[in-house]
Amino acid sequence: MYCSLKTCSLEGLEGNLIDVEADLSNGLPKFIIVGLPDTAIKESIERVRSGIKNSGFEFPLKRITINLAPANLKKDGSQLDLAIAMAILGASEEVQDIDEDYIFLGELSLDGGINPITGALAMIISLREQGFRKFIVPEKNKIECSLIRDVEIYPADSLRGVVEHVNKEKPIERYIGQIEYKDDSYDLDFSDIKGQAFLKRSLEVSAAGKHNILLIGVPGSGKSMAAKRYATILPKLSFEESIEVTKIYSVAGLLKENNLMINPPFRSPHHTASSVSLIGGGRIPKPGEISLSHNGVLFLDELLEFPKSVLEVLRQPLEDKTINIARANASISYPANFILLAATNPCPCGYYGDPHHECTCSVSQIERYMSRASQPLLDRIDIHVKIDAVDYKHLAADEKSESSKDIAKRVAEAREIQKDRYKNLNINYNSDLRENQVNIYCRLDKECKKIMELAFNKYRFSARAYNKILKVSRTIADLSGNKEIEKENILEAIRYRSLDLKRLV
Q1: What's the pLDDT tens digit per position in 334-371?
Q2: What is the pTM (predicted TM-score) of this model?
Q3: How far apart are CA 303 and CA 291, in angstroms?
Q4: How far apart are CA 211 and CA 429, in angstroms?
């Protein structure tokens, strides 16, 4: 007695079609699963056995062989439980004529219920691209799965319900949900920040062109306060971006209420985080903080408190916008197109260069502290901003400064200008410009070239820093509504690069 049906196993964000074959033969009762199953799948033997019995079906006392094809592909995840149980019931003729177009996804509980799974949205998207349109999924994953409109979603809460649906005894109604937006409301606003006009302007430029930014200042200067409000000036994600982000969070098991995420993610790992937690890892690598920040912001507070080995793993994803994780069992790529927002003190005690406090650090201590961020990493950060402590007159002032809503409007307008300019290219923002495109879209007139030459010779910029300045000046011009980069734009962009961490000492 034989039955075959289909399910899915994830490899990164990509789902692989898995054929679940069940063979029942005479002999001593035995239940084996072959085809490179992981531990979670091997443990499904007991979940499937109990689930079938407690659903009111007879578990066959035969030699049961389950083959997961293709046999050379490592299978991962408990979402194969439902397919394995249905294949056994099909082979024992409890289920008749299973539609081969169905994809079965779900984890079984011992009482025959179907538990939610992680990565359901990624599986639906991957198999949809392979031409499959019918999915039986856990009831609690139905909202997430219904984000893809041109597939048929049949949510089930029990194994018996799935059997009755397949046997056409009690069909499950197709679920067509309304897209629900997980719109986090912010209780923070840029108007809360007293003074610090230069800081707020630099964050606006960063947000407008998706430029990485480093904030350097003494304790209490407002670095963390401003960083926590950074997300309030970012535009909502487009539908395509929302699907990308939601898919990543689905795979990571962090999707709250299964709703579509429309706000850019804001991740803020502690400085004790390991390199694996940043890039992702595990036997079958899961997304790390940099992938969870995709289309959003990765905020590293106290940047120089992170171990140097951890900071160095950021270099490749900052350049390539993806992270490649190689393990013995799999080699996986995750998207990592994020804005790096970093903040640090200028020395271990925090008061180097502060006219109001005495620094207790020696020169060698400061040099060692600064050396934790390598020059290649700093070169990948477009904007460097030194922040001074807030004056009393600003703190005591009653007037409210510009709100996040007003700044966000200018940021959105600048981003629309960029998207229109690059509509025929595979990029959306000024920060995405490649080296061979910088000279085309960031042209300078004679006066701007002269200014750039003087700054280049004075500050000894690297070639990468030179290109960063041109990209930032293009963003500043977009914020000002200038079609060409003007003198004021290039001067402001140079100001964001003239601070070198190595020259603070």
Answers
A1: 999 999 999 999 999 999 988 888 999 999 999 899 88
A2: 0.91
A3: 19
A4: 9
